[in-house]
Design a protein that fits this description.
Blueprint lengths: L1 E5 L6 H12 L2 E6 L8 H6 E6 L6 H15 L4 E3 L6 H11 L6 H8 L1 H11 L2 E2 L2 E3 L3 H11 L3 E5 L9 E3 L2 H10 L6 E5 L3 E10 L5 E9 L3 H7 L4 E5 L4 H13 L5 E10 L4 E7 L7 H9 L3 H11 L11 E7 L9 H8 L3 E6 L5 H4 L2 E7 L2 H12 L4
Parallel strand pairs: 1-2, 1-4, 2-3, 5-14
Antiparallel strand pairs: 6-9, 7-8, 7-9, 10-11, 10-13, 11-12, 12-15, 13-14, 15-17, 16-17
Length: about 400
């Protein structure tokens, strides 16, 4: 298999994926904008060739890089970045070069939040009341039906950028004052609940071959907009209602040979409501949390699924794995040394976060695991306890 990995150097997990692809038997070729000498040594070892382009948003440059690879290496079997930012570019390259995977005729179904609702309904999963509009008249019409508060977010895009909770007419006025031009928005009713995920791998036959679930302790929208710290926990077992909804969504979207990351609201009354689907690994350190919870190498499982259409297993969750971040501007009650002394037996990783990710992920983060969920919760609260 000739596998072209687009942007293998960023984010850093690309190194892990490329390394496992090579170990699974693929010839791994990279396209990126970073100088070759700046690449991680492990990534260099995984790549049979690296083609540097000045502008990764320039389709023609990527097209020429692909022409070079085909001339030198023959047919390209896969083109991936595992990054939502490049969905359109990936689909265009696959379409133009007849490469297996999602093509241009389908990509908007998994990119635009307004189109996801049709598949959620097809799956028989509860959906959020929503209206696609970037105009004040449309917003007022929607609010007249669902009332305040509402959530406003870009129709296309990952993460919580330009996502706002609007609770008053004054906040609505402020949104229309600051909203960026040329961005299409959707407006949704506000759901009082927490987000849980259904994450995993679906093979090229459409069979889910691995699944896990994570629960957030707070809204990512609030974390980003209010510059708060965040925490979440990867669970050793998946709630039945979450798994039932997630499996229906994977089938409705007809996903094949992909990671999937499905976000679902769970209301205080226990109702499951579909939020969005992403065809990529879960973000941040959630992929590593899966490894810690299940004692597996999900990077290798993905690579073997892609190259050989097979995975290991059976997979069984063993631990609760928590992520707890800190923000530099917040004064914490316990020092880093205190944290290591009090909970070092549970900490499996701790490190600073790249600035580009810090608004959501924090400036410093700890990952912890335990078979005791209460002890883990206590550790997270200890890490994030603030001075009065």
């Amino acid at each position: 298999m000739n596998f072209v990995f687009f942007s293998p150097h960023f984010p850093s997990t690309g190194t892990e994926f490329c390394d496992r692809l090579k170990k699974a038997g693929a010839t791994v070729l990279g396209i990126g904008d970073a100088p070759y000498d700046s690449l991680d040594p492990c990534l260099k070892a995984a790549l049979s060739e690296y083609y540097r382009i000045p502008d990764m948003d320039n389709y023609d440059q990527t097209y020429r890089a692909m022409g070079h690879f085909i001339h030198k290496w023959g047919r390209i079997d896969r083109f991936e970045s595992l990054n939502e930012h490049w969905l359109d570019l990936e689909a265009g390259i696959r379409t133009d070069f007849n490469i297996w995977g999602i093509r241009l005729d389908y990509v908007q179904n998994i990119k635009k939040k307004s189109r996801m609702r049709a598949a959620f309904r097809k799956a028989g999963v509860n959906v959020i009341a929503q209206k696609k509009t970037s105009e004040r008249t449309g917003a007022l019409d929607f609010i007249s039906r669902v009332g305040y508060p509402i959530v406003v977010k870009p129709d296309s895009g990952a993460g919580a950028a330009h996502t706002y909770k609007i609770s008053t007419p004054e906040e609505l006025d402020e949104f229309f004052r600051i909203k960026p031009e040329g961005v299409s928005f959707v407006m949704e009713e506000f759901i009082d609940g927490l987000v849980g995920t259904f994450d995993g791998l679906v093979n090229r036959d459409g069979e889910i071959v691995f699944a896990a679930s994570t629960r957030y302790d707070d809204s990512i929208m609030d974390v980003v907009n209010n510059n708060k710290h965040m925490s979440y926990t990867c669970l050793p077992e998946i709630e039945l209602a979450v798994e039932e909804a997630g499996r229906k969504i994977v089938e409705a979207f007809d996903l094949k040979e992909r990671f999937f990351h499905i976000e679902l609201f769970e209301t205080k009354a226990g109702k499951i409501i579909a939020l969005e689907v992403n065809i990529r690994p879960p973000g941040g350190y959630m992929t590593d949390a899966i490894n810690y919870s299940f004692d597996i190498d999900i990077y290798a499982e993905w690579a073997n699924m892609v190259v050989k259409n097979q995975v290991g297993g059976p997979f069984k969750g063993k631990y609760y794995t928590a992520y707890a971040s800190r923000k530099d501007h917040i004064r914490y009650l316990h020092s880093h040394g205190d944290v290591l002394a009090a909970h070092g037996d549970k900490i499996v990783r701790h490190n600073s976060i790249e600035k580009i990710f810090s608004r959501a992920m924090g400036n410093y983060a700890y990952q912890l695991r335990s078979t005791d969920s209460k002890a883990l919760r206590h550790a997270v609260e200890y890490i994030q306890a603030t001075e009065a």
